[in-house]
């Protein structure tokens, strides 16, 4: 070993020792804070968001911001687990993109609870069997997840956070020859995200929608002579099924947005969103009137989605995301005016916006 190489390695060893001491000091302080907060408040989303915002703002590299966010999410996850291990419900089974979203938001020191449906995720959190739930709400290619929107309207749960997960789809099978594949299993959203690739490479193959991409893998393994699945590379590795093609989604920027749901009102973090569901009275200009309070109070809208109200034929509710926290003065003023012109308004929650 050269003297120069040894010098650098010695410096790394010293830094690692300091990191270990500092991490344990941080964990001890976090544990003390946990005792002061009490058992009913395990997670403060706004506080964790502020820590991540601060670390990203102070990051001078060479580590990219994404790596800094991931590292500190894991540090907070393991420190938090010294108080109580969070239980987080998600749309399972194991190996789905929903589980990846749980890990991205909460780290790996949590108990992940797979559920068979989005309905069960809501029910699990409402019953207190999980602290939080993670549910998909929209995809950049395929649009909104209707069932999640319907349940947000019905449920007493609050939106406590969001997760943006880049989604890369892969074709997998024990069949090595594409021409031998007769059917492809996947979730309907994943099939929709890969239409161009499928039309080009497997134009005559049957596309079979199933409840989850993990279920698709199991079916492809069961019918391994002529079947394939579309799922994530991570899921393929977990189930030991070979990859035939990677990144087959039609849009390389393909992203799914997930919401964190829970029984918690989240305080302002300094960079927040507020989600609403509202309806307009049946009169000319009613939808315009819903937007006017936002413009008047200088509140930016980032999403507007219509959905059948299920209360009558051709009646709709509108799902809206706006920038800012509901307790910020300009947002609070806009909400007061909205309630004066809308037939119905429900604030689904204010929460830290994703970095």
TrEMBL record:
Catalytic reaction list = chorismate = prephenate; prephenate + H(+) = 3-phenylpyruvate + CO2 + H2O
One MF term from GO for this chain? chorismate mutase activity
Localization in the cell:
Cytoplasm
E.C. code: 4.2.1.51, 5.4.99.5
Task: Show where the Prephenate dehydratase domain sits.
Answer: 87-263
ACT domain sequence ranges = 275-352
Keywords for the protein's UniProt record, in alphabetical order: Amino-acid biosynthesis, Aromatic amino acid biosynthesis, Cytoplasm, Isomerase, Lyase, Multifunctional enzyme, Phenylalanine biosynthesis
Q: Which Pfam families match?
A: ACT, CM_2, PDT
Q: Which pathway?
A: Amino-acid biosynthesis; L-phenylalanine biosynthesis; phenylpyruvate from prephenate: step 1/1; Metabolic intermediate biosynthesis; prephenate biosynthesis; prephenate from chorismate: step 1/1
Q: Which residues form the Chorismate mutase domain?
A: 1-87
**Record keywords: Lyase included?**
yes
Matches recorded under Gene3D superfamilies: 3.30.70.260, Chorismate mutase (1.20.59.10), Periplasmic binding protein-like II (3.40.190.10)
Function summary: Catalyzes the Claisen rearrangement of chorismate to prephenate and the decarboxylation/dehydration of prephenate to phenylpyruvate.
Q: Which PANTHER family match?
A: PREPHENATE DEHYDRATASE P PROTEIN, PREPHENATE DEHYDRATASE-RELATED
Any idea what this protein is called? Answer: Bifunctional chorismate mutase/prephenate dehydratase
């Amino acid at each position: 070993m050269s003297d120069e190489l040894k010098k650098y390695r010695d410096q790394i060893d010293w830094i690692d020792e300091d990191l270990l001491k500092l991490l344990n000091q941080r964990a001890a302080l976090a544990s003390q804070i946990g005792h002061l907060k009490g058992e009913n408040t395990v997670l403060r989303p706004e506080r964790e968001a502020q820590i991540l915002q601060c670390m990203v703002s102070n990051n001078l590299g060479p580590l990219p911001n994404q790596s800094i966010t991931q590292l500190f999410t894991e540090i907070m996850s393991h420190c938090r687990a010294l108080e109580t291990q969070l239980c987080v419900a998600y749309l399972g089974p194991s190996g789905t993109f929903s589980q990846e979203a749980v890990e991205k938001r909460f780290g790996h020191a949590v108990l992940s609870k797979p559920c068979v449906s989005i309905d069960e995720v809501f029910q699990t959190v409402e019953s207190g069997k999980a602290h939080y739930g993670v549910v998909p709400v929209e995809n950049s290619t395929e649009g909104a997840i209707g069932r999640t929107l319907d349940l947000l309207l019905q449920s007493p749960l609050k939106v406590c956070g969001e997760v943006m997960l880049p989604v890369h789809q892969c074709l997998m099978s024990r069949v090595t020859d594409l021409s031998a594949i007769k059917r492809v299993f996947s979730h309907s959203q994943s099939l929709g995200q890969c239409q161009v690739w499928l039309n080009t490479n497997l134009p005559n193959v049957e596309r079979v929608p199933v409840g989850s991409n993990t279920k698709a893998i199991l079916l492809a393994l069961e019918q391994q002579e002529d079947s394939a699945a579309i799922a994530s590379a991570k899921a393929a590795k977990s189930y030991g099924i070979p990859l035939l093609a990677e990144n087959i989604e039609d849009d390389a920027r393909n992203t799914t947005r997930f919401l964190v749901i829970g029984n918690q009102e989240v305080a302002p973090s300094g960079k927040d969103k507020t989600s609403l569901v509202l309806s307009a009275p049946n009169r000319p200009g009613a939808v315009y009137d819903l937007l006017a309070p936002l413009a008047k109070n200088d509140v930016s809208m980032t999403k507007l989605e219509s959905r059948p109200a299920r209360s009558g034929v051709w009646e709709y509710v509108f799902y809206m995301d706006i920038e800012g926290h509901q307790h910020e003065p300009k947002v609070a003023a806009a909400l007061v005016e909205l309630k004066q012109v809308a037939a119905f308004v429900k604030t689904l929650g204010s929460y830290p916006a994703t970095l």
